[in-house]
Amino acid sequence: MSAAIGMMSTAARPSISQAAFKALKSVIPKEPHPYFIWPQTVKNQPVAMSFFAKRFARTATMYVPMYVGFLLWPFGAKELILATTGV
Predict the structure, then answer these.
(1) Residue 55 burial (10 A CB sphere; 0-12, 13-18, 19+)
(2) Is the dihedral of CA 19, 21, 26, 31 positive or negative?
(3) pLDDT tens digits for 54-80?
(4) Does residue 31 contact residue 39 with C-beta atoms inside 8 Å?
(5) Which domain of life is it from (predicted)?
(6) Taking 70 as the threshold, does the pLDDT of residue 7 lie above it?
(7) How many CB atoms neighbour CB 64 within 10 A?
(8) Predicted local confidence at residue 87, as pLDDT
(9) Region for 86 from its dihedrals, namely left if φ exceeds 0, alpha if ψ lies in -120 to 50, beta otherwise
(10) Nearest CA to 25 among 36, 14, 35?
(11) 48-52 long-range contacts, Cβ below 8 Å, gap at least 24?
(12) What is d(CA 22, CA 68) in angstroms, rounded to the nearest whole number?
């Protein structure tokens, strides 16, 4: 029975890596929690809007025609069938 008690007590102890991580966390300086708080140690990076606008336009030139073709092909097929068979 004493062996079972000894096993239970070792399972509750943190491992060496957990203890080391906890000790390391206490040494690292803490910044306030990031929810709705601007970072105090790093400045914000500027947003390159021209880059994103060009990238969006380049992507849209491929996606818009593909989606139009994918969504409207049944109507084109209907018109083709009506034009060729008259039914």
Answers:
(1) exposed
(2) negative
(3) 999 999 999 999 999 999 999 999 999
(4) yes
(5) Eukaryota
(6) no
(7) 10
(8) 76
(9) left
(10) 14
(11) none
(12) 56
Q: Give residue 76's identity as a one-letter amino acid code.
A: G
Q: Which amino acid is at 54?
A: K
Which pairs from 42-47 meet CB under 8 Å and 24+ separation? none
Furthest-apart CA pair in the chain: how many Å?
A: 92
Between CA 25 and CA 41, with CA 32 as vertex, the angle to 5 degrees is: 90
- Dig out the tokens for 42 from the structure: 């790093």
Q: So what's the pLDDT on residue 19?
A: 86
pLDDT, one tens digit per residue, over 10-54 is 557 878 888 888 888 888 877 666 676 666 777 878 999 999 999
